[in-house]
Design a protein that fits this description.
mainly beta; seven-stranded antiparallel beta sheet; about 45% strand; about 15% helix; about 170 residues; Pnp Oxidase, Chain A; 12 strands; single chain; three-stranded antiparallel beta sheet
């Protein structure tokens, strides 16, 4: 039988429990006055299909957070199985920062001027319609204005503190 814990959900316990949830991996990007910026995210959720809207959670402590708040546009690039190096670059696991991260993967400018990953399972270009600060994160709500679909195939997921192909 699994152990049952009535422990108060402190941060470490919460992070451990969340590490057991499998999530699709995305790289969220923007383009602003200071250039391109991006981060790896698993907290991406569909909000509505009429109008198409999605939600992204952005840690306010990352260097690129200000760029997302200022730009008003962003892209959510859903990664294929072979895009683990892209996820690592934008997740801070490689010794790359800022513009250097865009040297990993094949990037092009989308319709809204945001970086889109060639070969992504899907790229959603969004206009920011609402932002709320909740605890350590900004919740970005974006209206989807353009979608590019890549070839179907295995996607990259994150579970158990590691990447897997599904």
């Amino acid at each position: 039988m699994d152990s049952v814990t009535d422990a108060k959900p402190e941060a470490g316990l919460y992070r451990e429990a969340m590490s057991r949830l499998a999530s699709a991996v995305h790289v969220v990007t923007t383009q602003g006055g200071d250039g391109r910026a991006g981060f790896t995210a698993t907290a991406v959720v569909s909000v509505s299909d009429a109008p198409p809207t999605l939600l992204v959670c952005l840690n306010r402590r990352i260097r690129s957070a200000a760029a997302f708040r200022a730009s008003g546009v962003f892209a959510v690039n859903t990664l294929r199985g072979e895009h683990e190096p892209v996820a690592q670059a934008f997740g801070g696991r490689l010794a790359l920062s800022g513009e250097e991260r865009f040297g990993v993967g094949d990037w092009h400018e989308g319709r809204l001027g945001v970086p889109c990953l060639a070969g992504a399972l899907a790229s959603f270009e969004c206009r920011l319609v609402e932002m709320r600060t909740i605890a350590t994160h900004d919740v970005l709500v974006g209206r989807v204005e353009a979608i590019a679909l890549g070839h179907e195939g295995p996607g990259l997921i994150y579970v158990g503190r590691g990447f897997r192909v599904l």
